Input
Amino acid sequence: MKKVAIIQSNYIPWKGYFDIIHDVDVFVFLDDVQMTKRDWRTRNKIKTPKGAEWLTVPVSGGRDQLIYETEIVQDDWQHRHLKSLSTNYSRAPFFKDYQFLLDWLYGQTHQNLSEFNRQTTQIICEMLGLKTQLLCSVDLAAQGAKDDRLIDICQKVGATLYISGPAARDYIVEEKFQTAGIELVFKDYSDYPEYPQLFPPFEHAVSILDLLFNCGPETPHYIWGWREN
Output
């Protein structure tokens, strides 16, 4: 059985994003679909003494452009993000251990949003020991819309099981996957264990940077390892 998940690229995603990557043989970035504003494509949350704070990547372009066409605006955003992360996480136990990641994120110019997000995800996957094959829907020349597009991608990578995010229950047509001979499973993001986190109360829905800075090499345990134990 070959398992696949298909999700838009996100800016330094939360732990659940890497959990679903861990679950599959092939993960496809769905980046040849319409770009959405004020969404996970361009932003994510970190913990601060005042609560969760957004880090947002500025982008250019109109409403009709696709994710992979979206360009990053070259203002001072990298300096702002690095300053915010340093201010709020410098006392985290493993913050200094990930200086190389921060250097890559904020020490060089990044032009294309999709490419930046995908490369960031790949680097973090390697850090977590994930061997999942990462592909982009653009390279697969995916056809159709909505469910039909997902099914086309599944067929092109030879997948027999599709793992979807739980929010898709509201609009996905399960019968289409059954007809195509593809088993459909919805990912369960509940019951993650809490970990030592700065600035209580505890918050799950933050960038994986929070978990890396606080737990370092124990990060995989708090994403998927706890289930295996």
